[in-house]
Amino acid sequence: xxxxxxxxxxxxxxxxxxxxxxxxxxxxxxxxxxxxxxxxxxxxxxxxxxxxxxxxxxxxxxxxxxxxxxxxxxxxxxxxxxxxxxxxxxxxxxxxxxxxxxxxxxxxxxxxxxxxxxxxxxxxxxxxxxxxxxxxxx
Amino acid sequence: xxxxxxxxxxxxxxxxxxxxxxxxxxxxxxxxxxxxxxxxxxxxxxxxxxxxxxxxxxxxxxxxxxxxxxxxxxxxxxxxxxxxxxxxxxxxxxxxxxxxxxxxxxxxxxxxxxxxxxxxxxxxxxxxxxxxxxx
Lengths: 138, 135
Known about the structure:
The complex is a heterodimer.
Chain A: E1 8-12, H1 19-35, E2 40-41, H2 45-49, H3 53-61, E3 64-68, H4 74-80, E4 88-91, H5 93-98, H6 112-133
Parallel strand pairs in A: 1-2, 1-3, 3-4
Helix pairs in contact in A: 1-6
Chain B: E1 8-12, H1 19-34, E2 39-41, H2 46-49, H3 52-55, H4 57-60, E3 63-67, H5 73-81, E4 87-90, H6 91-98, H7 111-134
Parallel strand pairs in B: 1-2, 1-3, 3-4
């Protein structure tokens, strides 16, 4: 019998005007499309705001990682407002602080350097995804 | 004499899960950058995560919502948590009106998506003009 692994929901900030919001999204897309395409899923954060039943079920039934773009922590708070505890939270600026040579720029989408930083960030987040997918939540 | 210049709030669906969400963000961002004196925005989840200032956004500004799908998160969340929008735009309807195909990727939009971004931005800008005329 094959091992059944959980899906892990990664929710980025919806930031419209901050580079770290764009970095949060790019990191999520890296996980979704390249780094962990079979394990990671996402949903639109505003669907949680309007309490869409399918989106609420997704975050209720699977471990959730949030990546926020500013200290207002919209992604984390939007999940918690539903009574769901987030398994792991990140603030996107942390990745830049650890890799000062990769300064992201851009508001709606990050530039090429930002994409490199997102790739590095996604590898780090992937380790947490693996733990959560295997049911090793810490 | 002071001249009061009204600003219009533009609230974008952020649609992280769908290509239309990215199109929505890029088009809204373009209008905000091209018309900084007349437009403002808010990150939609701030209606929940923010404070009083964020929750009164639609009371302080006439607001245009732009949605990427028929779930209409931006329109519904704005009306539910802040105030009734002045106008609600829909990406699928705009694309249909302009005879443009929906985008197929979530990120890294380029020349292939430019016509769609341009068309949506133009419709948002037109809506901004209409709202400003009504004010």
